[in-house]
Write the structure tokens for this entry.
Amino acid sequence: MRDWGSVKPRDPEELLARLLTAPGRRDRITHVERVPARAGRQAAWPDWVPDVLVERLRAAGVERPWAHQVAAAEHARAGRSVVISTGTASGKSLAYLLPCLTAVLEGAAAAQGRGATVLYLAPTKALAADQLRAIRSLELPGVRAATFDGDTPTEERDWIRAHAQYVLTNPDMLHRTLLPGHGRWAPFLRALKYVVVDECHTYRGVFGSHVAHVLRRLRRGCARYGGSPVFVLASATVSDPGASAARLVGVPVVEVTEDASPRGETAFVLWEPPLTDLLGEQGAPVRRTVTAESADLLADLLAEGIRTVVFVRSRRGAEVIALLARQALDEAEPGLGARVAAYRAGYLPEERRELERALHSGELLGLASTSALELGVDVSGLDAVVLAGYPGTRASMWQQAGRAGRAGQGALAVLVARDDPLDTYLVRHPEALFGQPVEATVLDPDNPYVLAPHLCAAAAELPLTPADLPLFGSAAEQVLPALEQRGLLRRRPTGWYWTRQDRASDLTDIRGVGGAVIRVVELGTGRLLGTVAPAAAHSTVHEGAVYLHQGESYLVRALDLDEAVALVEPAQPDYSTTAREITDIRILQTERSTRWGEAALCFGTVEVTSQVVSFLRKRLLTGEVLGEEPLDLPPRHLRTRAVWWTISFDQVAAAGVARADLPGAAHAAEHASIGLLPLFATCDRWDIGGVSTALHQDTGLPTVFVYDGHPGGAGFAERAYSSARPWLTATREAIESCACLDGCPSCIQSPKCGNGNNPLDKTGAVRLLTALLAVAPSG
Ligand SMILES: [Zn+2]
Ligand SMILES: [Zn+2]
């Protein structure tokens, strides 16, 4: 067997050259970005860090800290809340471990050894378990750290409350257990000096808004016992991390963004799979799938002894890529295929450790993985990373690409475009990826649907007083009367009280959006596989849908809406399904608007009525459309926020768009703009929806709407409103620069269009957007 473990460090050009040996490959490269190497900058250990801690960190391999770690640690030590926002593997954890462990060590002399306590929050249990392992490995005398999550046994919980100084948990536990039972945590909360919010960029959209209120409740709980913790947040590189962090925790936050860790040179390649002979919907040309293309690249890199991970969005996709690469490698050299694996979320810590070990030793050469790997497995030290499709944000893109490069050595990153408008735009506009700061983390704590249950939970924890309201934002005052009317809160002279028997924290699931969830149950065994949010149920667990759970695929046999249950059966279909829905929209209130000449751009509250009407089956490997089947589901109503633009009939005529072509032009512009919005807001195209019409009943004009797919909104439409000009400019360019003739999935076709992608007018859309942007105020 070849010994991959001793492969020499490589330079990125050599890595790239290896990839291009197969014929026809060079034409698929649309751009190569050379990201230069960066020398590291170290700093001295702060003099307030106890010797024992320095010693143990040195023993663990940290000779001296990097400058950014010390900068963030100094802010925290001085009592300023701080966010450190730097690249993957830049050692963000040391920035909070220094002040936090120092405080705990200093407090160890106090009564019960708890002069200071630390609360660490991670988005996943796995990450908290890793942190605990790291802290325990330092073997610091007198430091008692423990994870506190759903798996923690009762006896252990009692011990943790009474003795632990460093508690590692997640926002869900804070919401359901720790805050409702704050009385029992009083000594811990009174001594609470630091709250660490790790991977804080994951708290975005509706989930981020929930977490923002959980943290406000935590601050209120601490204040009750005289505590006022400093927040230390760690984030992937995002734009404006200080402002996002401040919105999340509700206090001013200083930012540290200059990464002083060393990095090797990276060749970042943008890759567009070739067009195939297959025909898609409306006869549109179809590109080779990202799955097939990425599997080829993985196999070729591995055959050259280049350690590689492929990041894939879906677990099923990861498995298919691993399988294809395995087959190709076994053909080249029997036995080689065994050195590729698929990785997904849900592994036990021991399994993840084993995987890390096998990767580091070289037993395992390559992985196809969901982004689960971003949280919790250390795979630094790879030579190459393949991104099977744009991961949705520049922040994630850099985070994933940052996995390549061993100890300052050269690395290769390849972004393979999916057949959709956003990916196609990006591989053809490298400046949108490399010349731009990463995007901001979007959340909206003022969403009344999110706020309301937290006001109830807060009142149940401690009666709410008028003095508390500013903590929960300007919307609190408007939401309270409705909660009184619904009998959820009772107003007394001293404030608002929760007087019901049930638990207020059960009113909301912070990872969902409220309402009765649909249970997914396995036929035959009756096993509960998971739950689906009500808003997503019609489109994800309708009859005939392919449902993915923990890497296994199932077919939905029946969806019973009255019983709120979907019945599924294990199956291995070679296709995926996409639901299609038709939508109608009414404007309830226009909250903001800007005149763009005769056109207008608006933001406000809308009522969306949508109905899933059918679903498409598409072959997994080729993307070929196998057929469309009708569905009989009732319409649903959603009150949410939207951005919309109108244009006058004179403008339409002047733009050279005939009245008959207007519906197709507006429709095409709508699809493409939904596809491009994730470039500006940290959303997924599935988090948002759109409606276009040549004549809308509320505006009396041609109108294109894009709305948040969650009740009350999640901040995405608001973000679209504030970045309308660059967003719509990118939309126009994406359509204009697509090589197809009349529109394709890479530009104006949408996989979830309820109208079968008809009518769509590519030229008309470009003309419409050009006319609109011509009158847009700059800046
Ligand atoms: Zn196209
Ligand atoms: Zn459509």
